[in-house]
Amino acid sequence: MVKVLCIAGARPNFMKIAPIMRAFGAHPEIEPYLIHTGQHYDERMSRLFFDELEIPKPDRNLGVHGGTPTSQTAAIMQAFEPVCKEYNPDMVLVVGDVNSTVACGLTSVHLGIPLIHVEAGLRSRDRTMTEEINRIVTDSISSLLFCSEPSGIVNLGKEGRYGDKVFHVGSVIADTLLANLGKAKALPTLSEMDVRPGTYGVMTLHRSSNVDDPAAFARILDIVEKVQKEYPILFPIHPRTRKNAETFGLTDRMRKMPNLRLTEPLGYLEFLNLNAHAKFVMTDSGGIQEETTVLDVPCLTLRENTERPITCEQGTNTLVGSEPERFFAAFEKITNGIRRHATVPPLWDGKAADRIAYVITTKWAAKKCGKPFPGNL
Ligand code: UD1
Ligand code: UDP
Questions:
Q1: What count of other Cβ atoms lies within 10 Å of the Cβ of residue 374?
Q2: Which fold has domain 2-170+347-368?
Q3: pTM of the model
Q4: Is 167 helix (H, G, I), strand (E, B) or coil?
Q5: Whole-angstrom distance, CA of residue 260 vs CA of residue 279
């Protein structure tokens, strides 16, 4: 048996950890445990997903949240260290690029426990993003690296990480989407929100570069103001964004836009149902760029870069930044029906987590036979 301590802390981690916990739970040779760091803690940013995606109740919640990237990362490390010692796992597995990812990754290697990174190798090349630093650090200390797209393999190779520690397994985000699409589409979300398929947009916004600076936030609202005159926009608002809108005095401006429908953060299934039937999605989320590619729904990414280039090359994603000219050039193509359809990227087939379980158990069995663990640093 190989004992694996799996980590999740923030909303996008839950969709990624769900298929991994399922695959590990069904594997006779893996003994999985789940630690929630507490980074996201609102009912609608955390517990809801455990119920909907049938993620096992965490074995421990570290209860750390809030603060700057530094204080949050440090607090998670301090809280995780005794828990990691107590469980004494054979490996620690982290997903994605949030502060919980790097914090638990660093703690595990400080304790001499091999680290596994799922969604390794993604690079936006924007080092002002906390997430980019988290990705680089986590990859540099991981013993096994699982990539969702070929760019991940190439990026890791350039950083000297290649060979029998790096595996292209596909997207665990696609695993969760494909497993839940039927259930999501059966929900009455569209009638409840009073929209018809193909006649509305969905927006999410939470990236620091877009919502922490009042001028940047206001520039995006200029775009939104025009778009909502043509199409209703459903906007489940992230807690960071809601708080900043209040601080910057932008809440009233949003409320006065008649076709901008602000809601609480939505459950995964409701949100998936809305995205699946949307005319377009406007977002700065990482995961949603992948999901819209699988759904073949046009995605306008309100960022200058992406760590998921395959969604632009083969998928439905267009980077539009926050300049109105660039945005409306891409938007008009969509509304005029001039749009690119997606080719689903390789291995985004719903089986990424099974591949991860297979590689881990194979490598572990080899280690038991005296072969060196592939990723020993
Ligand atoms: C984090 C991740 C980001 C990810 C996003 C997904 C980092 C560096 N950032 O950003 O990569 O895309 O999650 O959603 O890890 N808050 C609440 N309730 C919650 C969660 C957050 O009120 O349940 C508020 C708190 O005021 C908190 C702020 O949002 O201080 C920011 O939360 P935090 O987890 O630090 O960063 P996110 O912006 O959520
Ligand atoms: N999501 C959700 N409800 C919402 C908004 C997003 O369930 O109201 C899901 C979305 O489908 C995706 C994940 O949250 O699976 C993405 O998380 P987020 O955008 O917070 O983080 P990122 O992917 O940018 O790190």
A1: 17
A2: Rossmann fold (3.40.50)
A3: 0.98
A4: strand
A5: 15
Decide if 2-170+347-368 and 179-335 have a common fold.
yes
Identify which ligand lies nearest to the alpha carbon of 119: 2
pLDDT at 374: 67
Candidate of 268, 270, 283, 293 to mutate for ligand 2, largest count of ligand atoms within 8 Å of Cβ: 268
Q: CB neighbours of 268 closer than 8 A, spacing ≥ 6?
A: 14, 15, 48, 49, 52, 53, 176, 180, 184
**37 C-alpha to ligand 1 centroid (Å):** 12
Q: Which ligand 2 atom is nearest residue 173's CA?
A: 15
> Which residue has a Cα nearest atom 22 of ligand 1?
239
pLDDT tens, position by position, 166-210: 999 999 999 999 999 999 999 999 999 999 999 999 999 999 999
The Å distance, Cα 131 to ligand 1 centre, comes to 12
Which residues are 202's β-sheet partners? 234, 281
Q: What is the mean pLDDT of residues 102-124?
A: 98
Whole-number Å distance between alpha carbons of 19 and 351: 9
Q: Which residues line ligand 1 (CB under 6 A)?
A: 10-12, 39-42, 45, 66, 69, 72, 97-99, 130-131, 206, 238-240, 243
Match 């906390």 to its residue by tokens: 130
Task: Kindly name the residue from 27, 168, 206, 277 that is annotated as catalytic.
Answer: 206
Question: Using 50, 70 and 90 to split pLDDT, how confident is the model at 377?
Answer: very low
Q: Which fold has domain 179-335?
A: Rossmann fold (3.40.50)
CA–CA separation, 57 and 266 (whole Å) = 20
- Residue 190 near residue 274, CB atoms below 8 Å: yes
- pLDDT (average), residues 242-265: 98
Domain ranges of the chain: 2-170+347-368, 179-335
Query: Active-site residue 206, yes or no?
Result: yes
For the chain, give the mean pLDDT.
97
**pLDDT of 368 higher than 90:** no
